[in-house]
Structure formats: structure tokens, C-alpha cells
Amino acid sequence: MNTFTHYHSPLGIMTLQACEQGLLGAWFEIETTMPKHLGDKSEDNPILINTIKQLDEYFAGQRTSFTLPLAAKGTVFQQSVWQVLREIPYGETWSYQQIADAIGNPKAVRAVGLANGKNPISIIVPCHRVIGKSGKLTGYAGGLNRKAGLLELEQKLFKVS
């Protein structure tokens, strides 16, 4: 059974969704990848409680990676892209080309961009760390202002650490 809760991040309200296997999604309120039916609202789901704790630590600069069970649903290709996203080090950015190279399919840059845009687990699967080849910020389902904010937070804290 799926459950959800809301999280008040410094960048806006997020909806968090989990099932028994793990976290299904973490969306900002404007994201279009959020499903219409989220399940039952829950304040006591241990996965959601742990997700909120780890997000609080992330925004406080005390966490650079997440240790949550993930259960995002996607195609085999999307899953391969999302796995590589989790390998991008905190405080760094990669281009879509670098992601395509990392999955062993250098010609799949556009497909990587589409898979990146369908990532249902914002921040925790750090699609915000992917930028254009030229270094420009490109699309982010949560909004470019949030992407810039997340990168600024990470780069500022990364340089201090």
C-alpha cells in the first residue's frame, strides 16, 4: 500500500510517497511526474520519517548522500540513468553526455535527458546535478530556480568542507 506525506523544504513544499519496499517519489508541488493517486496520508510510515530526517540533514549541510531504500518505477533504461545519477558526487555537476557515456551509450544524450526529467525522486536521486554540455542550467521538473538553489547549497557547503 502506498502512503504519502508533505515535507516543508527550504525550497518549497514537497510530496513524499513510499510503499513497503521503499521511497517511490519526492516531488516539489509543481512537478508533473507526480501521480494523481498517492495512497493514504501517513505521519508514521518509517520510510517517510527517515526520508524527512535525511532531507533535514541535507538542507542543514550535514548530509551529502542518502541511505534510503528506493522503489521508483521506470523502464530499464530510466533505472540505469537514475542509478548513474546517484553516483554523481555531492557538489559536482555532470553533463547529459557524461551520463550517456557512463551508461555505455554515448549517443543516447537526448534519451538521457528524457529519463532525467522523469526521475520521480528529486534531490535524493540528484537529477539537479545534471547540466548542459556548455555548463548552462537546463530543465528541472522542480523549476530552474530550485535547481540553482540546490546546486548553490551543495557547492557552497562542498567548498567549506
From TrEMBL:
A GO molecular-function annotation: methylated-DNA-[protein]-cysteine S-methyltransferase activity
Record keywords: Cytoplasm, DNA damage, DNA repair, Methyltransferase, Transferase
Any single Pfam family the record assigns to this protein: DNA_binding_1
Entry keyword annotation includes Nucleus: no
Major place of residence: cytoplasm
GO cellular component, one term: cytoplasm
Ranges of residues in domain Methylguanine DNA methyltransferase ribonuclease-like: 5-71
Listed PROSITE patterns: MGMT
Subcellular location: Cytoplasm
The reaction(s) this protein catalyses: a 6-O-methyl-2'-deoxyguanosine in DNA + L-cysteinyl-[protein] = S-methyl-L-cysteinyl-[protein] + a 2'-deoxyguanosine in DNA; a 4-O-methyl-thymidine in DNA + L-cysteinyl-[protein] = a thymidine in DNA + S-methyl-L-cysteinyl-[protein]
Gene Ontology biological process terms from the UniProt entry: DNA alkylation repair; methylation
The Methylated-DNA-[protein]-cysteine S-methyltransferase DNA binding domain, residue ranges: 77-155
Top-level taxonomic group: Bacteria
NCBIfam families: ogt
PANTHER family to which the protein is assigned, alphabetical: METHYLATED-DNA--PROTEIN-CYSTEINE METHYLTRANSFERASE
Misc. comment: This enzyme catalyzes only one turnover and therefore is not strictly catalytic. According to one definition, an enzyme is a biocatalyst that acts repeatedly and over many reaction cycles.
Family per record: Belongs to the MGMT family.
Protein name (database record): Methylated-DNA--protein-cysteine methyltransferase
Organism: Nitrincola tibetensis
